Amino acid sequence: MDVGILALQGAFAEHARVIEKLGHKAIEVRSLADAKKVEAMILPGGESTAILPLLKKTGLDQWLTEKVKKGMPVFGVCAGLILLSGHSLKLIDVDVVRNAYGGQLDSFEDELELHIPRNIKFKGIFIRAPKIKKIGKKVQVLGRHGRTPVLVRQGNVLAASFHPELTDDTRIHEYFLKMG
Ligand code: GLN
Predict the structure, then answer these.
(1) What is the tally of structural domains in the chain?
(2) N or C, which end of the chain has less CB nearby within 10 Å?
(3) Model confidence, pTM
(4) Does residue 39 have an active-site annotation?
């Protein structure tokens, strides 16, 4: 598969490494021209307040909205989750609060139990993560930290508040690539 990785800002190289490791092609997307051949799309972590204006400026916000409606799989991580949420593009029916776990010094790791669809344990790395506060009826919760959802899916849209690309564990990316 040709997997686009939004590369306007943030941790895109790590996702590209995982995608290539799984035998797919990673395409860095900075413009509509880059996005042409893409069959799935990853929105990486970074700074959503920096990425959102660039998404709008490049027209990639509208492109993404149309593609999601047509069924293209999209995976948003951390800032990517913020971009997909009610906060920004509204492509998944979840509301988030930015930096709700605290600042850089409150970044943490914890073991998560995920259901993708088998029950697995996964190392959750949270870096200035957004907290999911509200989810719509169509949203499936695939993992929680305590009572808080941290991995959610609505149809072809997957979103995580933690960073799977910073581990050697490729199982969430594998799950994502099978969503198409
Ligand atoms: N705090 C960042 C934001 O609000 C997200 C952090 C991250 O992606 N690691 O966009």
Answers:
(1) 1
(2) C
(3) 0.97
(4) no
Neighbours of 17 (CB within 10 A): 13
At residue 92, the pLDDT reads 98
78 catalytic residue (yes or no): yes
| Residue 163: active-site member | yes
Which residues line ligand 1 at a C-beta cut-off of 6 Å? 45-48, 78-79, 82, 98-99, 127-128
Q: What is the CATH number of the domain that holds 92?
A: 3.40.50.880
Residue 180: per-residue pLDDT: 76
- Residue closest via CA to ligand 1's atom 6 equals 128
User: Pocket of ligand 1, candidates 52, 82, 109, 125: which has the most ligand atoms within 8 Å of its Cβ, to mutate?
Assistant: 82
Q: What is the predicted pLDDT for the residue at 98?
A: 97
E strand intervals along the chain: 2-6, 25-29, 40-43, 74-77, 94-97, 108-115, 119-126, 131-135, 140-145, 148-154, 157-160
pLDDT at 155: 98
CA of 174 to the centre of ligand 1 (A): 23
pLDDT along the chain (180 residues), means of 10: 97 97 98 97 97 98 98 98 97 97 88 97 97 98 97 98 98 95
* Helices 48-58 and 60-69, axial angle in degrees (round to 10): 90
